[in-house]
Specification:
The protein is of the alpha/beta class and 347 residues long. It has twelve helices and 15 strands. It is 34% helix and 18% strand.
Length: 347
């Protein structure tokens, strides 16, 4: 039986480094013709990425994917709002489904200038994704870029590449609000999925090498560095960006026993989310909760970026590609995982 590694199972061995300042580290990454200064994408969730979050991501050189849990008209309005907020040059992505009105939604958003589309489904290694990708590829301009997923295996990565995906989104059942694994028994730790899919790349066949997005399971910046070292080109974040000023769903409340301010955060397969955007509930594979208010996402991104830069510096890596070449993973025991944390807090 195959063993699967998660983020807490491994560490990266420090390497000899000639990087004198973390400011010298280059975190830029390309997604086809689109270039980004940081490898961070805001997840298409209705409590994570609306126009304000997408604009904040663009201003920092990242990418926001506008969620699809609304009418076509409302999503188009989000694109308009994004454009009003950015006087700077920046890309925005938009999520679409793979059935129903997905093509009408795609056309409406493409007409407004969106060039990056995320086929946003829980199980991306599926005939509906195959059918939609092939149809969209055949009925869209060459400058349109498609992100597809979510998937968990090397076979799925290769298949989505063949079906026409420009970028593959990896991670099944690993989101902080996701209950897919406990509800269905299916899933693969995201780190293992990234490792497996990165090995599937064939250097001489560019169409078989779509960039990899590691999506789900990142609890901290260390997990982001591990994902990048394992072969991811980008990470998609939800909980780390939620609870900020720019995240949608600004309803706040104070918990009586501590007086702190909180904001709602919900998985899109939770009962609350399904009732909110669909008006009915099917399979519940997520939960909703509250998280502490964090202030501006720009401050959060500053911290995350600084720590990723430190991670690359410890590996002696000038950029993400060099990190992937130099990275040496080691397994750690459960005792090692405790030692890796601020273990004085456990006393």
């Amino acid at each position: 039986m195959k063993k699967a590694l998660s983020f807490d199972d491994v560490l990266l061995e420090p390497q000899y480094s000639e990087i004198e300042s973390r400011d010298d580290v280059d975190l830029s990454v390309a997604m086809g013709p689109f270039n980004f200064e940081i490898p961070i994408i805001a997840a298409p969730m209705d409590t994570v990425c609306g126009p304000e979050m997408a604009a904040a991501m663009a201003s920092r050189g990242g990418l926001g994917i506008l969620h699809r849990y609304c009418s076509i008209e409302e999503q188009v309005d989000m694109v308009k709002r994004f454009n009003d907020l950015t006087a700077i040059t920046g890309e925005v992505g938009a999520a679409i489904g793979v059935t129903g009105d997905y093509y009408e939604r795609f056309c409406s958003l493409a007409w407004k200038g969106v060039k990056i589309f995320c086929l946003d489904v829980a199980h991306g290694h599926h005939v509906n994704v195959k059918r939609a990708l092939k149809f969209l590829r055949a009925n869209s301009a060459d400058n349109i870029h498609f992100i597809a997923g979510n998937i968990a295996t090397a076979q799925a990565y290769g298949d989505l590449a063949e079906w026409g995906a420009d970028v593959v989104r990896i991670g099944v059942g690993s989101g902080s609000l996701c209950t897919t694994r406990t509800q269905t028994g299916h899933g693969v730790p995201t780190l293992q999925s990234v490792m497996d899919c990165a090995k599937e790349k064939i250097p001489l066949l560019t169409w078989r090498n779509p960039p990899i997005i590691s999506d789900g399971g990142h609890k901290n910046s260390g997990d982001i560095v591990k994902a990048l070292a394992a072969g991811a080109d980008f990470v998609m974040l939800g909980s780390m960006l939620a609870g900020t000023d720019e995240a949608p769903g600004s309803t706040t409340f104070c918990q009586s026993d501590d007086g702190k301010e909180y904001r709602f955060y919900r998985g899109m397969a939770s009962r609350e989310a399904q009732e909110g955007w669909r008006g009915s509930v099917r399979s519940i594979e997520g939960v909703s909760t509250k998280i502490p208010y964090k202030g501006s996402v720009k401050d959060i991104l500053d911290i995350i970026e600084m720590r990723i830069r430190s991670g690359l510096s410890l590996a002696g890596a000038q950029n993400i590609k060099e990190l992937q070449q130099k990275a040496k993973f080691i397994k750690q025991t459960s005792a090692g995982a405790i030692e890796s944390s601020a273990h004085i807090l456990r006393k």
